[in-house]
Amino acid sequence: MSTVICDCLSPQEQRVHDQIEGKEDRYRKTHSRVFSLLERFEGQKPRIDIERALYFTQSMRETEGQPLVLRWAKALMHIARNITVYVQEDQLLLGRAGCDGRYGILYPELDGDFLDIAVRDLPTRATSPATITPEDAKRVIEEIAPYWKGKTYHEALNAALPPEIHKLTYDDPLGLISRFIVNETSSFRSSIQWVHDYEKILKRGFNDIKKEAQEKLDALDPLSAKDYCEKRPFLEAVVIVCDAIVLWAKRHASLAREMAAIEFNPQRKAELSRMAEIADRVPGEPARDFYDACQSQWFTQMFSRLEQKTGTTISNGRMDQYFYPYYQKGIEDGSLTEETAIELLECMWVGMAEFIDMYISPTGGAFNEGYAHWEAVTVGGQTPDGRDATNDLTYLILKSKREFPLHYPDLAARIHSRAPERYLWDVAETIKFGSGFPKLINDEEVVPLYVSKGATFEEALDYAVSGCTEARMPNRDTYTSGGAYINFAAAVEMVLRNGRMKKYGDQLLGVETGNPRFFKTWKEFWDAYVQQHMLFMKAAFIQQHIIINLRARHFAQPMGSAMHDLCMKHCIDLHQPQIPEGINFGYFEYMGLGTVVDSLAAVKKLVFEEKKLTMDELLRAIDANFEGYEDIKALLRTAPCYGNNDPYADEIGRAIDKISVEYGKNYSMKDLGIHNDVRYVPFTSHVPFGKVVSATPNGRTEWFPLSDGSSASHGADVNGPTAVMLSNYSTKNMGMRDRAARMLNIKFTPKCLEGEQGTEKLVAFIRTFCDLKLWHVQFNVIRKDTLLAAQKDPQKYRNLIVRIAGYSAYFVDLSPDLQNDLIARTEHGAL
Amino acid sequence: MSSAADRRHTGLVFNIQKYSVHDGPGIRTIVFLKGCPLSCRWCSNPESQSNQTELAYNKGRCLGLDKCVRCPAVCVRNALTRRQDATLDIERTRCQGCHRPCVDACPAQALVAYGKNMSVDDVLRTVEQDAAFYNRSGGGMTLSGGEPLYQGDFTLALLQEAKRRRLKTAMETSGMAQPETLRQARVLLDDILFDLKHMDSAVHEANTGAPNARILENFRILAEEFPDLRLLARTPVIPGFNDNEEAIAAIAAFLKPYEQVRYELLPYHRLGTQKYVFLDRSCSMGDVTLDKTIMSRVESTARDILKERFRSP
Which among A470, A493, A589, A702 is annotated as catalytic? Predict the structure, then answer.
């Protein structure tokens, strides 16, 4: 037999090694501006900037009693007038939401009720810490937090949840600590992931949107109460936010002009003058060229961060599409070169990397470790007409990702059945770089699903990747409420403990399905699981019913709404529960698929079929966390596992998926008026969810992380990456539409993708992923010993980027827990 | 033979490995067949050599007989006893021909049976699971071993049925086989990966247990009678055996006239040594490793002679 082994590093690992040895980065020379921008903040602990929170609060204090959307617009205007504006050394783009360096901003409308406590703990907490000056901390505690006590959405939700739902949601009366059973996610962000229609801003500018709103105002029926009470405040709010963003941009223009006047370096002087001239024009007016377009888009996304906390931060949409006409024109008339285009894009990447999506609540922090944000830039895919959409800019963005490997923005490549070979090769080469980019989203799954849920082909074909794995149609999508994350591994535990959990003692949380020792058949066990499962589903849907209606009274987003066709047409804020003609894509999270499938398979096979183990032995071993029961623990691990293309396990997975999908089918539209579909995307939350679940029948010890997304349990996938994919395929109910994203992580060793041949095989692997109609896949190309070395010496490896649950982060930013989790995952080497 | 008859044919398989990317074109599944006429000193699959099933014991996985006594409890031949350190002692002479209930009883997968009787149907059912990946990558099934032609009838039936199902097929062979079997297999194969270890027959025999005349003759048959066959010659570079420029140059010179043949060198690795321990055998290679500079030197030797027909893996 022939086995090929040699030392082989991914280019990213090579880069880290070179840096340790003091060699200059090979791309530094051609990207010197952005390298020097990057070096100023790489590895910095983020700082908290309180200005946004301060001005937002000041304004809200003044406008009480007015329509919410109008209050929000006025607050944005107050921020636009007063917030400090910056012109950063060497930067070519203007606009940031806070101070120099790595920074985060506060949204007290979300967490003002416990902001004072959180600010005290923030610098020292284990997950995603941040610094704040004592003066700022004092202002938060004395000026900002007190106003919000009793007013936040979170408090209202906590009060509104009925006791039997509350106890599955929160672990304390104030609702500050999650139970991690049926976890709500609507209170740590104003909206789930979102994509703006940036193209509209580039083509029309905010001045034109303001004009549209003004005309609509003038055309309102003067005798209509509805027009007066609902449409008028919305339209006035649109006018105000359009003015606000233009004012904010022009303040940057003035500052840049002042700095140009005193600048000695002639090159920088010219740059500053040009920046001032552009900021005077966009985003109010349409973009004329590529530089205008970049600046206009950048102002828009940064100001929208001041407007609200969009979950995972606002995404960038189909950048290779809406920038392309400007790029093409510049290249054709000679006013733009590839190098200047890349430099502008990378100035934007730097700005994205500096902004930290700060989660103040402990639950939010645990959900999004490593300062996660997914401002997904989408490339590739199809045109609204169904043709391949790749262009020169697609390739330029991929190239930038390889040469300047910052972990922001998150890059998403759309794949379809006719994707050109060149595109897939470039995508594969970029993946091989080893920083985890790009993640892949499959048109062959997303487009037909969205059409089946009511989109037109044109809209569905033009989707943009949003956040971690979602797909948005920016003028048709209208749903913004965070959904429940449901810990189904806890449902397994409740079957074993008659509705209770070890972590929560004697408290009855689930259904009393009886003592499992008396179950005579597998069917009895399965039925007990289904009962617990259904209780969780019901709780999640009740939560969501309350959330949808409650959020509308606490959140508005006049700027986001101004960019949305349907909101403008119907004069209604995007956060309202129902926007006419809109499609509501909601989802709930199935947490721990691998853990649950493997546990159920072990019980079915070993206890009921082969009788190698009695239920009593199993329960005693689990109670002891397998201590003294090592043989039972080992035995449990011999049962069929999800992720191996084993029909035994996968059939259980499909049955579980089916009861989840069917619940959505029966109750989503009918009860909630939305699509509330099953999704398998955990971010990093499979770690905290695991911390409440005791030992499980798959041999997992207590408090260990659950399996993540639709990936296999840690180390359980022993048949290689093709089997992981096929298990995913086999556990889907393809005949039903009530499903959302599935996230799949696959880790390769660099050896397995080495050389031209390796690239070719990765391309074939990606094409097969497309054929199998899986929603998403992303790759880690890394060696285990590199991760271990990084864990031992974080300082040396501070720029090592790894792929975790849907995003890339600096490995050293992760908690030890999550680092271990990553290391424990199976490496698919090719031996 | 008919399809039905081929499908029922059984053989001894010791592993089926998915997602292989280094043994033939595209994404492949390797079927490892037991039994080999050679016994190379460096063999990285010692479990492939015997044509019988074998019991392997991985001490590292064993929970210890102080914690678990499931295996001796089911052993009817009293072949399993406890050593002082609570690990297992296997009396292998008593173990021959047993149906191995100990393997099924072991919860830790410390006891494993190398070799499983499988029908052509069983094998292809597993192989075809990855069909979606073969379609896109030009991959398929690769037979390996052992020496796949050692179980000649089974291999031919497997290849015959694979071809009926339009699978792409490849075979790794030591070349130590009946010429007629090789000819029959060849027409059912898209690719052959042929090991050439040493041109000096005496050295060859001393290290593999057999002279090389039959192997070289078989190579000539393939190369001359079937000039359209995709034939890849491979040499494992083994310390103290052929890790020198002369040995590699001789092989490359032998290959030179056959213009369709490509050539690869595979550096020696020690990953198989663990499996000798599992079988209570010792590997005569000891701790020796392959010198990287020697490896690159012999690579350039091969490249000098065969130019672009030589490819480094």
Answer: A470
